[in-house]
Design a protein that fits this description.
Shape of chain A: globular
CATH class of the domain at 20-93 in chain B: Alpha Beta
Structural class of chain A: mainly beta
CATH class of the largest domain in chain A: Mainly Beta
Oligomer: heterodimer
Largest sheet of chain A: 22 strands, antiparallel, barrel
Order of helices and strands of chain B: HEHEEHEHH
Distance between the termini of chain B: 66 Å
Number of helices of chain A: 4
Helix content of chain A: under 10%
CATH topology of the largest domain in chain A: Maltoporin, Chain A
Strand order of the largest sheet of chain B: 2-3-1-4
Shape of chain B: elongated
Largest interface: A-B, 20 and 23 residues
Strand content of chain A: over 45%
CATH topology of the domain at 20-93 in chain B: Alpha-Beta Plaits
Mean pLDDT of chain A: 89
Number of strands of chain B: 4
CATH architecture of the largest domain in chain A: Beta Barrel
CATH superfamily of the largest domain in chain A: TonB-dependent receptor, beta-barrel domain
Number of domains of chain A: 2
Largest sheet of chain B: 4 strands, antiparallel
């Protein structure tokens, strides 16, 4: 029993350190253990202790792979999948619980971000070296952040202005012709005010066409990204604000040297300018009871001019979000949070298609204002039972009033076992063309119906068990989530192979996912994680309930990470096995497969840490597996059968990279 | 021939490893350690000093225990290294070094 308790204390103590000090006699060990730390490795990913099933991916975890941007930060994570959306634009999307990334609410520093037109390329807008952590919450999340989360939330925390003063530079280069430079510098002006500048430049110049289909495997992306942040820490007042600018050009498609015989080259070009402004004010009314009022908000403008062959799309999107929150601990066991929010979306879009019959043009302007109120109550019985119930009511100027209930409970009868249950509803306004404009890189006609507001219920159950094994702790997690849509904007490839039809759901649409994962420190410094997830995602297309296309039926993952005792060397390897799935029918006269098979991906990295810098070298997709036919009918990109959106696997082969992080001034 | 080479290599490894003299130094630091951030700052910087083998920190005892290779560094050099990242270190008293079983005098105090 003492042995079990010892292990529990280790787990519960400071999250980073788990080694027992051998020199201490066993009778004093238990009392001292929570206070004693040994140079060992930090736990890079940790579970959130509250009622919501969440995990925090720390900076140490992000350093285990290249993590050039948010999209590449989930390589070692079993829960989140990142897939290419098409083979022309380099757009990627997250999948959580087997469903598209649009159903995951993206937040930066607890504020909703990267909605609508920003969605297709959003994963490239957050440079990896800027992030201090990522919180991934699964299932119905808190109602505090709005009604949009359906499968979960991903919240990115940037480096903070009030972190230790200094400058960090990061330079990265890869065999695929990518060069990146990142910098973060912060300064304290007195004890209360601090500021920070985050800068990023990226240039992809590879022009690689490994499968020799005449199309570049990856677009050439040139991105400038700059952010300035300020923080004021008073005794009772806190301010945090900043602004950011992103400028990006991504050019893909056919290149003259790759397609010398083509009379007219098929090109894709997306020029993006994005501006963001955010601020948070918090007033501490009663520190003893944790009573505070916070006013926060952000505003963004997203301008994009896109051309996919003879199809053009221009968008001007503006968003303003404001929120006021009040929180207090009524007693030690009762916490109350209440507030109201206002969301405003403006979207102006123009689409042009140059066909045989001339130019067809469509323009659209839409505005949606959604004020809302929420209340959330949390009961905490000595961390043995945590129950959180929240409800919010919002009124959309387009869809009217709607109510969002969400409920979470966590039971922890023993220190070594916990279980969570959740149920909740989520809603979303679909901006079909803005969110999927990369689907224009296809010869299929893009047909969009008048869409209803999307809504879905999500139910989940998860459990964690800590088992003492050979003096160390085996951590086991299992979880099951079920999501079913009441209304959904369905992307239908199946009913008519000459179209991509975005239409309202007529029938059933659901997702079942079951995941088990375990981690165990085999020897000191070596941590092994293994996970397996089954996805069963189905939707009704043209009256038939079918498997969601281009979605793997399962995913297996094994990661190994070894750090030498003083942490000067770090070795990481990750092996993924992605299950097969369904491919929709196409118009191509060349026989195209109806399904894809399972495939593996291996990545590895070695890092050497020095006092003021670290050097890393690694490789991705080391087994070299890639989808053979990424562009259907690449020989005739102006035909109806052309399609660059049928992507289910890696579009690039093996990539080797190296980088250096230099730290100046920080101790 | 192969056997001789192998034997020589083993003898060399044994000589190198036996030649290492691992010693322990326990110090107290100013300013005091208050949280894991303080501990990480000490461990994160001290680990790059030559000859350091293992670092253990204890907030309860306010000590940093350093195992080092006496052939590569000295207690003076280790104590001086703390100044590089804003700390002052002093060798702990005997009582502090016997943290797991305090002596009778310390108990009486």
């Amino acid at each position: 029993m003492k042995r079990i308790l010892t292990i529990i204390v280790v787990i519960q103590g400071l999250l980073g350190y788990g080694q027992v000090v051998d020199s201490l006699p066993s009778d004093t060990m238990l009392h001292r253990l929570a206070d004693v730390t040994v140079v060992s490795r930090h736990i890079a990913t940790r579970r959130v202790s509250g009622a919501v099933n969440g995990m925090v991916i720390g900076r140490e975890e992000l350093f285990r792979a290249a993590c050039c941007n948010l999209g590449e930060s989930f390589t070692t994570n079993p829960s989140v999948d990142v897939n290419y959306s098409d083979a022309a634009t380099g757009a990627k999307q997250i999948r959580l619980l087997g469903l598209s990334g649009t159903y995951v609410q993206m937040l930066t520093e607890n504020l909703p971000n990267f909605r609508g037109a920003a969605a297709p390329y959003a994963l490239d807008y957050v440079p990896g070296p800027w992030m201090s952590s990522i919180q991934v919450s699964k299932g119905a999340s808190s109602v505090r952040n709005g009604y949009e989360s359906i499968t979960g939330q991903i919240d990115v925390e940037y480096l903070k202005p009030d972190d230790d003063q200094g400058l960090t530079l990061n330079v990265f280069g890869s065999s695929m012709g990518r060069m990146e430079a990142n910098a973060d510098v912060n300064m304290h002006m007195g004890s209360r005010l601090s500021t920070e500048v985050l800068a990023h430049f990226q240039d992809d110049y590879g022009h690689h066409d490994v499968n020799h289909d005449g199309f570049m495997d990856q677009p050439d992306v040139r991105q400038w990204n700059l952010q300035n942040r300020w923080k004021w820490r008073g005794d009772r007042y806190l301010f945090h604000g900043g602004l950011s600018i992103i400028k990006e050009n991504r050019d893909g498609g056919q290149k003259r040297h790759a397609s010398p015989a083509a009379p007219h080259l098929y090109k894709t070009e997306v020029e993006t300018d994005r501006y963001e402004l955010y601020m948070k004010h918090a007033y501490i009314l009663n520190a003893e009871h944790g009573t505070n009022i916070a006013v926060m908000g952000n505003a963004s403008m997203h301008l994009a001019d896109a051309a996919y062959g003879h199809k053009e799309y221009d968008v001007n999107e503006k968003n303003v979000y404001a929120q006021m929150l009040f929180e207090t601990n009524l007693t030690e066991r009762h916490n109350l949070s209440a507030g109201f929010s206002l969301n405003y979306d403006y979207l102006r879009q123009e689409a042009r298609v140059q066909g045989v019959q001339g130019v067809q043009e469509a323009r659209d302007k839409s505005r949606e204002t959604t004020p809302g109120v929420y209340m959330q109550y949390t009961y905490n019985l000595d961390s043995r039972l945590t129950a959180m119930a929240g409800i919010r009511a919002d009124h959309s100027s387009i869809y009217g009033t709607f109510v969002t209930p969400r409920f979470h409970v966590k039971i922890k009868p023993y220190e070594t076992f916990s279980m969570r249950l959740s149920a909740g509803k989520g809603y979303r306004t679909p901006h079909a063309l803005a969110e999927n404009n990369n689907l224009m890189a296809s010869g299929r006609a893009l047909v969009i119906d008048d869409l209803k507001q999307e809504s879905a219920w999500n139910y989940g159950i998860s459990s964690s068990v800590y088992i003492p094994l050979f003096g160390k702790t085996l951590k086991l997690n299992a979880e099951y989530y079920y999501t079913h849509f009441s209304h959904q904007a369905v992307i239908d490839y199946d009913t008519d192979p000459s179209q991509i039809h975005i239409t309202n759901l007529k029938g059933r649409s659901y997702s079942n996912t079951f995941q088990v994962d375990m981690s165990y420190p085999i020897v000191s410094g070596l941590e092994i994680t293994a996970a397996w997830r089954w996805n069963n995602v189905k939707c009704t297309y043209g009256g038939k309930l079918m498997e969601k296309p281009l979605t793997s039926r399962y995913k297996g993952l094994v990661t190994a990470s070894y750090k030498t005792p003083l942490g000067l060397w770090q070795f990481d390897a990750t092996l993924q096995l992605n299950g097969g799935g369904r491919i929709p029918a196409t118009l191509s006269t060349v026989a195209t497969p109806k399904s894809f098979h399972a495939y593996e991906q291996l990545s590895a990295q070695v890092t050497r840490w020095f006092r003021h810098f670290s050097v890393y070298i690694g490789g991705e997709n080391l087994t070299g597996f890639r989808q053979k036919q990424t562009v259907i009918n690449a020989a005739d990109p102006w035909s109806d059968a052309f399609d660059a959106t049928m992507i289910w696997g890696p579009v690039q082969g093996t990539m080797v990279y190296a980088g250096v992080r230099v730290n100046i001034g920080r101790l | 021939m192969k056997k001789s080479v192998l034997l020589c290599a083993m003898l060399l490894i044994a000589a190198v490893s036996m030649g290492k003299s691992i010693k322990t130094l326990v110090v107290t630091v100013t300013p005091q350690m208050h949280c894991s951030g303080c501990e990480n700052k000490i461990k994160g910087n001290l680990r790059f000093e030559k000859g350091i083998k293992k670092i253990t920190t204890s907030i309860a005892d306010q000590t940093v225990t350093v195992e080092y290779d006496a052939g590569k560094t000295t207690p003076e050099k280790i104590i001086k290294a703390f100044t590089k990242f804003g700390y002052e270190a002093k060798e702990a008293s005997k009582c502090k070094t016997m943290k797991s079983a305090p002596c009778t005098k310390c108990k009486e105090k």
